[in-house]
Amino acid sequence: MTIDKQDYFKTTYEQSREVFRGHLDPIKKKWPNAVISTKPIGNEADNTIDMIYAEALTENKQVLFFTIGEHGIEGFAGAACTHLFINEYLDRIDPHTTGICLIHALNPWGMRNYRRVTENNVDLNRNYLYDPNSVPKDINDHYSKESEMFLPNGKIADLTQEKRKLYTQLSKALVTTGYSGIKKAKGMGQFEFERGVYYGGKQEEPNTAYLKEIQKKLLSTFARVVHMDWHTALGPANEITMVISDLDGRSEEQLKDTYQLKNILPFSADKVKGDSTHHFHRVRKEEYPDTKLFSALFEFGTFGTGKKAEFREFQTIILENHLYFEGAKKQEDIDWIMNEFKEMFYPDDPEWRDSVIKEARLGIEAVLTAEDMLH
Asked: Range of 208's domain?
């Protein structure tokens, strides 16, 4: 079936969910045992995590697992990748030895409201702690020192002035020797300021509990799990970047050699805290050592890399958070901030959206070929 690339990209959470639910039919043709489940999440009506699941028809040798929308707004590009997979790769998977598990919108509230975080302002990817006591006592020290920059304080009266103030504060923070609070919080989260950016939460979010259960179910049911978690923003603009926990055990060179991808970024638990794929690797290692696991994030870059892009990213995240909690006096300021936020996580730009499809093909083929899943 030929589909216009732009048709993959939806503008509302409901549209995206409806398309996802429609994937059950083509999946049932190959896996008659496939089922869809819907889990209401959070306090507001009709925010659901939807999952299509089928075990292999003959032997549960392996499962292909896609997750999208852990960071709300990023789920629109992720949903496009799931749709692309259904259209172009589903027929090349052997249902006799391979199960399938596709999840739509791990953070439905964020996707519906065009935010990255949950309704509790929690960054879900800082909320998956295998051992909650592993959060260092001093994790918020730097952040506390710079907290006036991260914490919304009063309505935005004049965006130009606000940006100027932020520029001064960020410039100081970003050139600080070692890890400044903002850079540390970006990777490690912060667990003290509920209205601040990169908040990891005081407790486990229901979304987190849900995914942890699925992780264990797949690790206990299949001999091998292949997991692709779709995100946007990080890495070179218009390119795909694989971000993978060092618990995978392979070096960057080995990973590049195996998957033939240009951008591969390993990360460690002392730089990133509470990541869901890292948690997946940890659960496998501690509780299911005989199961094989590939689990990584796949990012589609927007602002690009380098100091200028890093500055723009921090400015965007901080201003959007400030706007959400305190509002702004001028409509044009609201529009500018929201537009910049979209530019970072879900740009309208047709060139970027074309690149998502092109690069998603690259990523899907790289992983499924290396993992011997395509036939």
From this structure: 5-117+202-302+347-370
